[in-house]
Design brief:
- This protein has 342 residues and is an alpha/beta fold.
- 43% of the residues lie in helices and 17% in strands.
- It is built from twelve helices and 14 strands.
- It has a six-stranded parallel β-sheet with strand order 2-1-3-4-5-13, with helices on both faces.
- Helix 5 packs across helix 12.
- The longest helix is centred in the C-terminal third of the chain and has 19 residues.
């Protein structure tokens, strides 16, 4: 069996010490003031000999596993698949592997996954949190585990966070519907404690400019029957809304099915808008107006922020607390279809 090339083999070839080879191949040549020509020779020799670092030994020495734990709420969401793809690609560019866990929107499962990933010695966590997960976030802070929340955060708990400005996007969406001539705008959202969804309701209510609010809140375990009831009521002669704005893609798709079954014409009878994008919209005969979240930018930014936390968390072997918790709010793009009388 072919012997693995060691640092000593490279050192013997170039005529330098093993420690000097280690400095160069670990990217510390400038810090250790290694000459450019010697550094070039070491790298060229390592490439010629097909040197591959021993990742286990490297992890033991650096106390880093070069892995990131990613916990998502539900793997089949369009949001999740886009985010996962972006995070995996960006992590790979930086020499990290991603270990993915799916909480199924369950707090107990989130708790278990956090502890499993910590025991696997991941270097940090990127988390789409479950509802009421404040205590889990406090635990990570107490244990000084580097982490970044994406999509969902908790105002009562300081944390690193990357997501969108849900309030501002919902506000702009209602303004858009008003510009299209809509005067009785309904909003269908979940009955939830999630801050990001409550912010969507707040944006809707504050943008109405004196119009009557028609907010309908859906119980998540019974969302199909609740959406059906809400759509029937909102399109009845007694209410007569002229636009329905849905807070998520799941609610929007369910609402769309019910509008079709009730033979409600879109947009002639009722304008239709979704906060999120869904692939199923392409199957509908009228292009659906919706907002498109910057999934790639969220994923890339989350990896970048987490790697900064990992780097800042250890300095010369001493524990260093983060200087401050950082929040980054990104914008979504309006995709104007034909479902809002454009």
């Amino acid at each position: 069996m072919k012997k693995n090339v060691s640092l000593k083999d490279i050192a013997n070839q170039v005529g330098v010490s093993v420690s000097l080879v280690s400095y160069v191949l670990n990217g510390h040549e400038k810090k250790m003031r290694v000459g450019e020509e010697i550094a070039r020779q070491i790298k060229a020799t390592a490439e010629r000999l097909h040197y591959r670092p021993n990742q286990i030994a490297k992890s033991l020495k650096s106390k880093k596993s070069q892995t990131i734990g990613l916990i998502v709420g539900e793997i089949h969401y369009r949001f999740t698949t886009g985010i996962v793809r972006a995070i995996e690609l960006e992590a790979k560019k930086n020499g990290y592997t991603v270990v993915i866990g799916n909480s199924h929107e369950d707090l107990g499962s989130l708790h278990e996954l956090i502890h499993v990933l910590i025991n696997r010695q991941v270097d940090g966590l990127i988390i789409v949190a479950a509802e009421n997960a404040e205590s889990e976030i406090e635990y990570l802070k107490k244990k000084e585990i580097p982490f970044v929340l994406i999509d969902r955060n908790f105002p009562s708990v300081e944390s690193n966070f990357i997501g969108i400005d849900n309030y501002r996007i919902a506000y702009r969406a209602v303004e858009y519907l008003i510009r299209q001539g809509c005067r009785r705008i309904a909003f269908v959202n979940y009955d939830t404690t999630f801050f990001h969804l409550k912010e969507r309701s707040r944006g809707y209510l504050e943008a109405l400019k004196g119009q009557e609010p028609l907010l309908r809140e859906i119980r998540k375990p019974f969302y199909e029957q609740d959406v059906a009831a809400a759509v029937r009521e909102l399109t009845s002669p007694g209410v007569g809304c002229d636009a329905i704005f849905f807070a998520t893609d799941t609610l929007a798709i369910t609402g769309l099915k019910n509008l079709i079954s009730l033979r409600v014409n879109i947009p002639e009878d009722v304008a239709f808008m979704s906060f999120d994008e869904a692939e199923a919209f392409a199957l509908f005969q009228v292009p659906v107006t919706h907002y498109r979240q910057p999934l790639e930018e969220i994923g890339v930014s989350a990896v970048g922020m987490l790697l900064e936390e990992i780097q800042d968390g250890k300095e010369d072997g001493r524990d260093v607390k983060p200087k401050k918790w950082r929040q980054l709010y990104l914008d979504s793009t309006l995709v104007a279809g034909k479902s809002c009388r454009e």
